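During the first year of the project, the team set up a workflow for recording each protein of interest as an amino acid sequence followed immediately by a discrete structure-token representation. This format lets reviewers and collaborators read both layers of information side by side without switching files. As required by the reporting guidelines, we include two representative entries from the current panel. The first entry is reproduced here exactly as it appears in our internal archive.
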Amino acid sequence: MTKPASRPALPMVLSGIALLLAGAATGWIVARTGGGGMGAGMDKAAVEEVVRNYILEHPEILPEAMENLRQRETGKQLAATGGKLEQPFPGMVLGNPNGSVVLVEFTDFACGYCRASVPEVEALIAANPDLKIVVRELPIIAPTSADAARWALAAAEQGKFPAFHKAMFAAGRTDAASIEGAARAAGLDLDRARQFIKDPRVEAELKTNIDLARQLGIDGTPSWVVGDQLLAGAVGRDVLGKAIAAARSGNQ
């Protein structure tokens, strides 16, 4: 599995935002003033210099502008998925399968931060009976991550994904012995699972997850999508809880 493309570095993003602000402000001033008012008699270069100086004198506006730009771009990226993001591979769901609030988690069994998030997710499920968690395996960390992800899909096919998910993270490793141990602990039919992981739908699902991650600019696990928010890393129960509440409010 190849790693999804990384997001631009912060200095590059800030520089881009500064240019966008300058360009947007220049266009606005020129359009508004016409032949009079603020900016009258100033050419484009002069207006750009005024805007540039203002940004340099008030750099505190950049984080706010960056966040606004990020939210706008995230909204466009989520819309571009055409609803595919929230459509789980059959059985790859935690919480309420019929929940009205959907949290999408990109995860890797070799990810320590994903492992640390397991109790946080369980607490969110307990606190939000309307929460449906769509799990997308994104095996990008260890060479054996993809094997564990395939077995997770096989567990889902048998209706035993939640048990396998928990047992796999409890094992703390993604080697063959740990995968088989988690499969046995979850009560999988091992022969049926071994046969299922050869099914073309399994590789198609993993490819879909990689493609979605690239489309959304996700380059690590865990990553979360809920409502119109994309959150990266082990952000914790409180942050996820607020995002879930916002998504619920947006659904009403």
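The second entry, processed by the same pipeline in the following quarter, appears below.
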Amino acid sequence: MMKLHASGEDYLEAILVLHKKMGTVRSVDVARHMEVSKPSVCHAVATLRKGGFLLMDEDHFLHLTDLGREVAEATYEKHRFFTDRLIEAGVDPETAERDACRIEHVISEETFERLKVAYKLNEKAVISSDES
């Protein structure tokens, strides 16, 4: 399997988010959403298609493959998790979004899984101490 760069993960995540929001996604939607040029999107789409992450139908709509969806969902989950934790910690939402976007690409799977577990355990502890 081809190793994806952070930007590739960002494109897949954007396509997933747009798909949830609009149902169908074209390159121009991705360019607008990510605030990048159309040629940048075209280059990324070509690379992601070659890697088996993305399909484009005859009407130029973009579709994630199972592999692409898996990567996009994982990236999006990390993005939401870190955005929410940073906002809870008092970081302003715009900065939280930006930082979460960086963190989601550099954190290992193991660390992320352990953080999620620790957060859930901590959340349960807080809830049970509130009830006593």
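For the second entry, the following points were noted during internal review. The chain has a mean pLDDT of 92. The radius of gyration is 17 Å. Both points are flagged for discussion at the upcoming steering committee meeting.
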